Amino acid sequence: MQHSLFPPQISDKINEAVIALRNGGVIAYPTDTLYGLGANPNLEDAVEKLLKVKGRSNSKGLPLLLDNIQTVETIVSEFSEIAQTICAQFWPGALTLILPAKSHLSKLITGNSRNVAIRIPNHPIPRALASAIGGSIIGTSANLSNRSNLLDANQVHTIIGDRLEFILDGGPIENDTPSTVLDLTKIKPVIVRQGGISMQDIERTTGIKFE
User: Fold this and answer.
1) Measured on CA atoms in the order 86, 138, 22, 161, is the torsion positive or negative?
2) Most buried of 5, 96, 141, 185 (most Cβ within 10 A)?
């Protein structure tokens, strides 16, 4: 299938990546912040394999990248007005929201909690991959746990290439600032990680005041 947004060579790579994802494989792919490790979040064996590839604890959970805003309500159990306001302002972009998860999500995705981390990236490749496998794709950083982020396909190939079914080379990442992580499940919203969206930007948009 040709993806009209992309030149033919990228479209072909996306098709190869989608086949790997549908077959339960683990891939690497570019995002707007870094190279990510991807798997189909609806295939439990694939999620387990990704955790092993990364060397990540089952208790930490895994973020999801989404294709569009309509997918949010298939993943979260409560999409509050404040969450909708923030999404309208900052998505697609470098802001990850932690929201209450629907019960069907794998405990490996939620880290055995009741919450899930989601965002819509400002990059067409992960959105296309997510769309092709049901609306979401795991979007954790393509590195070994607690190691440096990887910013081009050659680095990914050198460090973990032998553990992956496919590496989608989308060129080097120019901006390696991670996404800001905002937890909206608390009584008062909490910034878990400072990143590409500043605390001041969120305060201006929402009226939230962070301590």
Assistant:
1) positive
2) 96
List b or e across 44-62, with b for residues whose CB sees 16 or more CB atoms inside 10 angstroms: eebbebbbebbebeeeebb
Query: Does some domain include residue 19?
Result: yes
Q: Which two tokens stand for residue 202?
A: 């969120």
Tens of pLDDT, residues 105-161: 999 999 999 999 999 999 999 999 999 999 999 999 998 877 888 889 999 999 999
How would DSSP label each residue in 65-122?
EESSGGGHHHHBS---HHHHHHHHHH-SSSEEEEEEBPTTS-HHHHTTSSEEEEE--S
Domain count, the chain: 1
Residue 3 located in a structural domain = no
- Residue 211 belongs to a domain: no
CATH number at residue 81: 3.90.870.10
Q: Which domain holds residue 87?
A: 8-206
